[in-house]
Amino acid sequence: MDVKRQQEITRAKPEDRPGGTPIEQAPAAELGDALIPAERYTSPEFMQLEWGQMWKKVWLLGGRSDDMPEPGNYIATEIGKESVLLVRQLDGSVRGFYNVCLHRANRLKPDGIGTVEEEMEFKCRYHHWAYSLNGGLKHIPDLDTFPQGAPPCGRIPEIKVAEWGSFVWFSLDPDAPPLTEYLGIIPEHLDPYHFERMAWTRDVTVEWDCNWKTSVDAFNETYHVQGIHPQLKWYLDDINVQYDCYDRHNRYLIPFAAVSPRVLLPSTIPPLIAGIMEAAGMDPAEYEGPITGIRRAVQEFKREHGLEQGKDYSELNDDQLTDDYHYTIFPNVSMNVHADDLMMFRQRLHPTDPNKMFYDIWMFELVPEGEEWPDRPRHQLFKHGDRTIGEVLDQDAFNLPHVQNGMQSEAFEGLWIGDQEVRIRHFHKTLSDYLYGHNGPGEGDF
Amino acid sequence: MDLGLKGKKAIVVGGARGIGYAVAELFAREGCDVAITARNEDSVKDAVANLKKYGTKIVGSASDVSDGDDFKKWMEGAVEQLDGCDILVPISSAGGGMGSLKYWQKAFDVDVMGPVRAIDAVLEGMIERGSGSIVLIATTSAGEAMGGPQAYNAMKASLVTYGKQLALANGKHGIRVNVVSPGPIEFEGGNWEMLKGAMEKFYNAMIRQQPEGRFGKPEEIARAIGFLASPAASWCNGSHLVVDGGFTQRTHF
């Protein structure tokens, strides 16, 4: 690799935190080195195949449990051409059904969070057909004017809903396996972070001009740091990265508060790393050690002072106090997981156009014990380029339409993927498993 | 022009990288025996190995200029190994920083006391031999607004005053003391290279202020320092030379 120096990165040991996030390297997956066809990103036929064979089969992230604490609270969320309602029931459980009135197809609720009207029912605003919290048909005005009677099914088709990790998940597949089975290793890996102690800080949706997978890919590798994010070379070590591919999901572990071996060490603390020290409560001016020692010093400082700051890091290993544990929950959730915050992206397909998508930015911050929770930020929706989403994400965002345009070129057959991008290969293998079964794509398949 | 550096014994404090290394390299190339130090042992080792290719005596080891005893010992050792010191260039710096009062202590310990201690260690010997040359390194940030009000700028400014008064006091012993104030200097592993990546807008705004559209290079400062340090600059004493490619605006009447 194109490095200027060798860098030793200290790594936590599995025995340091029994019961914590597993940190052993997963066995290398046999994923080959074939091209990934560009049509996967552009073809309407492939989009249809994805919808039928994948989107309708998997578990999808719907929202945040603390947005619906009370019976009658709901989340309406769209996926492709569908919208679903995830609803807190009287008994505290969550159930869900399609967001569509059985009468003339009106959406019962617009996208977003809310609370049902009086009487604990959803009332369609078109003709006031009313539904109970679980989607059962409750009342049809002037029922006697329908000679065929009420729809015999008696309810809006139900979807599967379950909660994990302070998030609400749903599946359009009535035969979907239980959520915990689908999530596999994820709860064991991420429960130690206690996302339920973190509060919303940002809730943004941007319409992007690229396929949803173009976006997933962008967050599945660190190879692009030296290209798109040159400033991060003085923030993280993009060379000493651990990649792990599991059954459906995958991750990389990337050291933060370190200078990339791609550049020589500067003689003063880089501004972004000084920011990490300050966020931890350290004074960078007090630091006397070498720049290569900062990551460890931050870990030790947080370990020593976490509790007095109201932050319980007891289930996290030392690396987790500085590093980015980055997970992709198949198919469309990218999570930058940190001890003090969670930055996650939900990448949703466009209902009709393979060249567009919705990019949800969800950010949460650990609320110190005893401190008041901040107000939930309002959801913002805009198109790419209308507003900034922060320097680093802007750098990603402004590049992606060009990637998508290039995918259409007759000169471009497919993605030429290297080892640093193994998660992209693994993601496509998982996708293929859904689309084509375990034998993979056949003759004429994408 | 012959600088007359051949055979001189030079000490460069902070000589492992950047401007300091370029100065040490100029001295070695011109035939000086050179001693260097810096805080990072690996950097010093690498620099010593590189400087040996010029065939003069090169010695070096790590030391911390802010640790008075440690640094005094190093200076004494360097003078002994070189068998005297004709030229001293103390250039170590703690760098900039704003916000914490600690930056003042650091800048004082390294940027001020580093040169003060180094001079203290060689001055007597220079007086005895009746000759010597010292070049202090200040900064254009001492004279003009740069990066906000901070310890680095103010502490470096004190070297301009101290250098002048040292010159006034010691000229009679055949010792010359001059000050060089570099403008922004860019090199691989330097802070401007980092800022080019880490704070691109600030970097570009600074570049636009440079008449030639670039920052200086370490060797461009080293040549000015090398000249002032050398016998060729025999009539330069107590001078303050700004070397910044025309970056700063003040006219020096």
Question: Can you describe this structure?
Answer:
The complex is a heterodimer of chains A (446) and B (253). Chain A contains ten helices and 20 strands. By secondary structure, chain A is α+β, with helices and mostly antiparallel strands. In chain A, helix 2 (44-55) packs across helix 10 and helix 7 (271-280) packs parallel to helix 8 (294-305). Chain A has two domains: 30-58 and 188-436, Naphthalene 1,2-dioxygenase Alpha Subunit, Chain A, domain 1 (Alpha-Beta Complex); 60-175, Rieske [2Fe-2S] iron-sulphur domain (Rieske Iron-sulfur Protein). In chain A, the strands form four sheets. Chain A has an eight-stranded mixed sheet. Chain A has a seven-stranded antiparallel sheet with strand order 2-11-10-5-4-3-6. With 253 residues, chain B is an alpha/beta fold. Chain B has a single domain (9-184, 218-242), classed as Rossmann fold. Chain B is built from eight helices and seven strands, in the order βαβαβαβαβαβαααβ. Chain B has helices at 18-29, 41-51, 68-82, 102-129, 151-170, 191-198, 200-208, 218-229, and strands spanning 9-13, 33-37, 58-60, 87-90, 132-137, 175-182, 240-243. Chain B has a seven-stranded parallel sheet with strand order 3-2-1-4-5-6-7, sandwiched between helices. In chain B, helix 4 links the parallel strand 4 and strand 5 (132-137). The mean pLDDT of chain B is 96. The A-B interface holds A 4, 230-231, 233-235, 263-268, 270-272, 283-286, 290 and B 17-18, 40, 95-97, 99-103, 106, 188-191, 193-194, 197-200.
Spatial order of the strands in the main sheet of chain A? 13-14-15-16-17-18-12-19
Low-confidence stretches of chain A: none
Tally the helices of chain B. 8
List the domain count of chain B as a whole number: 1
Helix residue percentage of chain A: 10-25%
* Alpha carbon gap, first and last residue of chain B: 27 Å
* CATH superfamily grouping of the largest domain in chain A: Naphthalene 1,2-dioxygenase Alpha Subunit, Chain A, domain 1
Assembly form of the protein: heterodimer
- The spatial strand order of the largest sheet of chain B comes to 3-2-1-4-5-6-7
The CATH H-level homologous superfamily of chain B: NAD(P)-binding Rossmann-like Domain
